[in-house]
């Protein structure tokens, strides 16, 4: 288990990979973002991306899952605090393999036995193009 005192500015954590399948993309969108370019293959083919694209919220959920698996599952996380400046930088098409990085920008220890960890999360597609980035803040327990 890692605590706030174990985390340092500049720490870079590689995230695993996730392939966004078409069924997953459409199922997510039907439940959470039912816009035609996420759910209707035929209509999306005549749209600006030439086919279906994942919801940005879906892409953000993938980033969260990869971050939990690569980091938070081994940290004494209390809770997330904030997402800031989340940007959707490019389309995620069915079959896209996503991976990324989590880079710690700041660790501030407070007098309540916790640290506020601020980090930049970036996801890239299988051609290395950034599709999402943003700043995340999470509270992590201190040892004491």
From TrEMBL:
InterPro entries: HotDog_dom_sf, MaoC-like_dom. Pfam families: MaoC_dehydratas. It comes from the Bacteria. SUPFAM superfamilies: Thioesterase/thiol ester dehydrase-isomerase (SSF54637). Residues 18-121 form the MaoC-like domain. Belongs to the enoyl-CoA hydratase/isomerase family. This is Dehydratase.
């Amino acid at each position: 288990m890692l605590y706030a005192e174990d985390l340092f500015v500049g720490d870079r954590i590689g995230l695993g990979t996730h392939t966004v399948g078409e069924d997953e993309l459409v199922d997510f969108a039907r439940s959470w973002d039912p816009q035609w370019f996420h759910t209707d293959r035929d209509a999306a083919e005549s749209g600006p991306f030439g086919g279906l694209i994942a919801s940005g919220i879906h892409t953000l959920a993938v980033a969260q899952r990869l971050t939990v698996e690569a980091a938070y599952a081994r940290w004494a996380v209390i809770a997330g605090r904030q997402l800031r400046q989340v940007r959707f930088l490019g389309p995620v098409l069915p079959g896209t393999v996503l991976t990324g990085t989590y880079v710690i920008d700041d660790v501030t220890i407070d007098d309540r036995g916790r640290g506020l960890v601020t980090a930049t999360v970036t996801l890239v597609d299988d051609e290395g193009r950034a599709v999402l980035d943003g700043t995340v803040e999470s509270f992590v327990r201190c040892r004491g």
